[in-house]
Amino acid sequence: MHADARGREDGIRAFSLHPGGIKNTGLDKHVSDDMLRAGGIIDDSGEAVIRPEHGMKTCEQGAATSVWCAVSPQLDGLGGVYCEDVEIAELAPADQADSIGLSDAHTKRGVMPFAVDPESAERLWKLSETLV
Fold it and tell me: Has residue 52 got a pLDDT over 90?
């Protein structure tokens, strides 16, 4: 959100997105198979569970939202929005954050209100600059 505001005048737009739950990307190397099984990410034989309707996708399906954000005319003139499943995500209920866990993370949809708060975005930007 803040990155979009900083680049807007130069014609640079920024988006946030969730590609979905994708196995075999290497990002799951710090999560045990037991946790992945409990979350429904892999089956008993260790194979990825692919259920796009629940956010559990192949690498290609997961990449679709990134590609869409980069080239879609639907996003012309927009920026600072959160996208998932090849569309702009709706605002999720604020109380959803309290109930989300690994086992149901892939069934929740939308962007949390705190994730689109401009003041939080500015604080995060400043902290990131300080740390870098």
Answer: no
